[in-house]
Amino acid sequence: MEFSKIKKFYPCHIPHDFRHTYVTNLLTREVDLKTIASLLEDTIATVEKMYIHYSEEIRKNAVIKLNEILG
Predict the structure, then answer these.
(1) How far apart are CA 63 and CA 57, in angstroms?
(2) E strand or H helix that includes residue 20
(3) In the chain, what percentage of residues exceed pLDDT 90?
(4) Is the pLDDT of residue 54 over 90?
(5) CB 3.0 to 4.6 Å from 13: which of 17, 20, 43, 63, for a disulfide?
(6) Where are the beta strands (DSSP E) in the chain?
(7) How far apart are CA 22 and CA 36, in angstroms?
(8) Could you give the dihedral angle defined by the CA atoms of residues 7, 10, 16 and 17, in that order, rounded to the nearest 10 degrees?
(9) Each residue of 37-64: b (16+ CB within 10 Å) or e?
(10) Which residues contact 3 (CB under 8 A, 6 or more apart)?
(11) CB atoms within 10 A of CB 33
């Protein structure tokens, strides 16, 4: 879909806003960085740099889950 058509409904947003929401949703669903980078046609390093705060939260949640499993 062309951004000009979307802009009618979301006049205050830019294309990057939608990309950010898309990546945030993928990270929240624990999609790995390699897959996200592939979907964005970008590098893992770039994705990690831009969304590192979400990556750190996911890592913390993984540690919590592991601790729950191991008791």
Answers:
(1) 10
(2) helix 15-28
(3) 27
(4) no
(5) 17
(6) none
(7) 10
(8) -170
(9) beeeeeeeeebeebbeebeeebeeeeee
(10) 15
(11) 19
| Residue type, position 8, single letter | K
Report pTM. 0.59
Q: What's the pLDDT score for residue 38? A: 97
Hey, what are 49's tokens? 């740099």
User: Tokens 């046609």, residue?
Assistant: 41
Vertex 38 angle, CA 32 and 41, to 5°: 140
Instruction: Flag whether pLDDT at 66 surpasses 70.
Output: yes
Select the more confidently predicted residue: 42 or 4.
42
Rounded CA-CA distance 2/66 in Å is 43
Q: Taking all residues of the chain, what is their mean pLDDT, rounded to a whole number?
A: 82
CA dihedral in degrees (38, 44, 46, 50; nearest 10)?
90
